[in-house]
Amino acid sequence: MTNSPIKPAWHVLKIEEAITALDSNPAIGLEAWQVSDRQGLYGRNELTAKVGRSRLSILIDQFTNVMLLMLMAVAFVSAILDLQAGEFPKDAVAIAAIVILNGILGYVQESRAEAAIAALKRMAAPNVRILRDGKVSEIPAVEVVVGDIVFIEAGVQVAADGRLIEAVNLKVREGALTGESQGVNKFAEPTFNEDEALGDRRNMLFQGTEVLQGRGMMLVTATGMQTELGKIANLLQDVEIEETPLQKRMGELSKALVIGSLIFVAIVMAIGLWRNGNFINLLNTSLSMAVAAVPEGLPAVITVTLALGTQRMVRRKALIRKLPAVETLGSVTTICSDKTGTLTQNKMVAENIFTANYAIQVSGVGYEPLGELTISRVAGDMLISDLTIHECTELQILLTASLLCNDAYLQKTANNQWKVIGDPTEGALLTLAGKANLWQSQFAKYFPRVSEVPFTAERRLMSVIVASQTMAIEDTPEAVRAIASLLSPSPYLLFAKGSPEVVLERCDRIQLGNQISVISESQKQAINAQNDLLATKGMRILGFAYQDLADADQDPDQDTLASEPSWIWLGLLGIRDAVRLEALAAVKRSQSAGIHTTMITGDHRLTAQAIARDLQILDRDRPEQEQMLTGKEIEAMDDEELTAIAGQIHVYARVSPEHKLRIVQALQRRGEVVAMTGDGVNDAPALKQADIGIAMGIAGTDVSKEASDMILLDDNFATIVAATEEGRTVYANIRRFIKYILGSNVGEVIAIASTPFLGLSAVPLTPLQILWMNLVTDGVPALALAVEPSEPEVMQRSPFNPQENIFARGLGWYILRIGVVFGLQTIALMELAYNSGNPLWQEHWQTITFTTLCIAQMGHALACRSDSKLIMELNPFSNPYLLFSVIFTTGLQLALLYVEPLRQFFGTQALTMGELGLCFGFSMLLVLWVEAEKVIWRSWQKYRSSQSSSQS
């Protein structure tokens, strides 16, 4: 496909200029030859995907891991040795099975087909009505070309980007692109500045958006990958997926283990040959060492641990799509949260009302008509509260206006949820009236609409004329009759709502209690001050007015603003997408955990600032303006400038998809681990770029979900913080079982390496026995350690450095130290059994060694539950899985000694009770050592604390 040679800023051009630039004709549309030429020039109107990795290459990549490569080499050499000796190569077969299993596990995790582009394609309209050769026809959306004249009507999805050339009461939902749920009014005539934000280009339509109401005609200006939707598709495919912190740490661990084991093998081989050792014996020793050094069960244990973490997160309303995301959550340092629907309810709520004499505060959540109207009256310098709605005539008439000058519907669904059909702002007015027990269905019946003039950008208000029939009908509800008695007895009434400035300009009177007075300049100034106050709270503000009419033929529009003012001012009403009640607590909790919250929204700066202030996202010690950036300001910065300032910014407003992506990248360049939330198509590139992409499960598009690592089932910011706690717990448990497994492995390697120098007749452990230890007697308790409950202080500390090595904070030193102790203990046992003079011990020394190593690990697992608390101080039933796994695994180990088929397969011998006593006795030595370290460490900490106290 060839790119368009014409790329002006279409929203800047007048209609005639756009038509001329594309050589189109709104009267007849394109001709057949033009369509053919443009299909060759621009290509089909569809999104195209770049070629990714094939499934075969993903499978091959699984076997390039250094640990698996070393195991494959061990299996190959072991098979040759066994075949030369005329034996079945069961060690090689077992190792090969482990290699294949690990490869399959890795493949399953990585082979998820990239579905974000497919989800984007599903957003394209299947058919579109166009004008070509003077005829209206319906064609598949993929055949639309630049310059086509497309008809737009309510309910359709826009098939391409285009410049409006006609619009009648047109409203479009652009949330998929801008992230904001409110419908946007569209107009054909106005033009806009070149740097106008995407959400403010009111004369443009964009592919994938939804027409809510009205009709129009559009000149297609971009198709396929040249549309705004196509640009997002390009951004998605250009994002390079980086390894998660866990994947990086596991890579480092693999390299360290392989390099360390190879060095150790080389040293043992060199010393053994220097001492004229038997090459075959040394080779067998080396093979056993190599198998012992590799924690074969570790990948499976980590996979299961992450899977268990996902199950716990689902119970907390977070669905994990990619397993490594579980651990990455524990490393998050910054949460970039969308405003609408995550920090806020994504439901417009009326919160403040100002009439001439009253200030009303409204409570309640969402569209459910439950809440309190707290009415306060200003009398001189006194504030009189605890008034009822029946004492406030001004409020009653204003609520009546909100019901009658309204095109939305409020409904209760089958599952007892309240929803709005129509404009969310108008829905908020219906909910407000419902809180005062005033209902649209009642008022519409007794005040039937006679005529109306809808909201337009030029007029900036909506007005209706209704007939007043309440007093003539005997069964009129009391609430309706009471309010009707407050109104003029005229047969008709005009109600209006809209921009406060416009409504106020048409008013010459004001409602003061039960009286109507001439409005004064001081009253107008007070109204403007109230308007400014609500604006600073980031609210959408509506002014209300009414007028009594003798004749229904009177124009509700009153034609122009030059007409004589004749309306009666009722008051101001502030509406906004209110913050979630639990979001503030969640923000505070994340701050105490050292996690920064950053709001990124397509909404206006003032609205974003007000929400951020309510949620305490902004730092009180710094000027608010220094902590905010807009999309235009980001445009003026290069990547270095944005990176330098990104750590100081807490709110980004009026941003585009490119801006969101740049923000995430800037934070990542600063070393942050970024979680990014989003629900729209516009969020997908940033979701994919972020270390943790978090999509909304309720309001999210398919595109955002496919690009994400995690989906919030309740669209709630608090769920992110809960998931972060689970992620920290998972990472703590991963470190816990890594130190448990690797401590054992180091001990095994040391014990096996000593064999040639102790004069023993054979290697104490065969590769098959080592695999049994690493997979079963180590693996099963390791899985139980993976579900160890979180520590109380897990969310009271800052995140650990995501760049830290897996062996950081003493883990590496612990593994070496315990490994040496374990190895020396095993060497002492082998020496004792082999040189004891007891023929039975000398015959069974390998099985004694094998059994002791396995049982010692059971005690080690119990000790690894805590770094500071002793085993006896921990409740054994707080992790019953570990208790069961220790008993179960010990039983399995004994089965290898006393069940004949297993004994034959693993090459073990039945031990006497005395020999078992020896095994259990030596096993306790490691546990005692670990527990003694805890006692010494606690004594040292207590001593340091007392020294610090005495010095202070």
TrEMBL record:
Topology of this chain in the membrane = Multi-pass membrane protein
Q: Where in the cell is it found?
A: Cell membrane
Segments traversing the membrane: 63-80, 92-108, 256-274, 286-308, 814-834, 881-899, 911-930
Molecular functions (GO terms): ATP binding; ATP hydrolysis activity
SUPFAM superfamilies cross-referenced by the UniProt entry: Calcium ATPase, transduction domain A (SSF81653), Calcium ATPase, transmembrane domain M (SSF81665), HAD-like (SSF56784), Metal cation-transporting ATPase, ATP-binding domain N (SSF81660)
Kindly name one Pfam family recorded for this protein: Cation_ATPase_N
What is a single cellular component term in the Gene Ontology annotation? Answer: plasma membrane
**Record key words, sorted:** ATP-binding, Cell membrane, Membrane, Nucleotide-binding, Translocase, Transmembrane, Transmembrane helix
Query: Do you know which InterPro entries this protein is assigned to?
Result: ATPase_P-typ_cation-transptr_C, ATPase_P-typ_cation-transptr_N, ATPase_P-typ_cyto_dom_N, ATPase_P-typ_P_site, ATPase_P-typ_TM_dom_sf, ATPase_P-typ_transduc_dom_A_sf, ATPase_P-type_domA, Cation_transp_ATPase_P-type
Domain Cation-transporting P-type ATPase N-terminal, first and last residues per copy: 9-83
Matches recorded under Gene3D superfamilies: Calcium-transporting ATPase, cytoplasmic domain N (3.40.1110.10), Calcium-transporting ATPase, cytoplasmic transduction domain A (2.70.150.10), Calcium-transporting ATPase, transmembrane domain (1.20.1110.10), HAD superfamily/HAD-like (3.40.50.1000)
Signal sequence: where?
none
Domain of life, per UniProt, equals: Bacteria
What does the sequence similarity comment in the record state about its family? Belongs to the cation transport ATPase (P-type) (TC 3.A.3) family. Type IIA subfamily.
Q: What is this protein called?
A: Cation-translocating P-type ATPase
Organism encoding this protein: Pseudanabaena cinerea FACHB-1277
